[in-house]
Design goal:
4 helices; Four Helix Bundle (Hemerythrin (Met), subunit A); 122 residues; mainly alpha
């Protein structure tokens, strides 16, 4: 994984999460702003899939469990669309909060993927 890209992903996910939680607690329903912030998180996760495929071919292999890394990555990629689906089905202020919780969960998962990739020794 690329450390700078990981930091950008975590920062964007945390910003999106905090934005959605604040909007939800301000009694705002899901909107283009809240759903769009999670769409940006999803685009970065798809780019992470490409990086995770190319990095080992370029000599940057993970030091931890490859299976664990990919389970985290696939789970993180599925989380934003599931949260957006929920938000569009049940258009309430709590759906916006759920979008924020999903984005914060992605931030934690991306950081854990970085740890798996770089820190652990098999």
């Amino acid at each position: 994984m690329i450390t700078v890209f990981t930091i950008v992903q975590v920062a964007v996910a945390v910003a999106a999460g905090l934005l959605c939680i604040v909007l939800g607690l301000a009694n705002r329903r899901p909107s283009d702003l809240s759903v769009g912030s999670l769409a940006l998180v999803e685009v970065l996760l798809i780019a992470q899939i490409v990086v995770a495929i190319v990095a080992p071919l370029a000599g940057n292999a993970p030091s931890g469990s490859v299976l664990e890394f990919w389970v985290y990555l696939v789970s993180a990629v599925l989380l934003p669309p599931a949260a957006v689906f929920w938000a569009l089905v049940e258009r309430s202020r709590w759906s916006t909060v759920i979008l924020g919780v999903a984005a914060l969960s992605v931030a934690i998962m991306v950081w854990r993927m970085q740890v798996i990739w770089t820190v652990q020794v098999v």
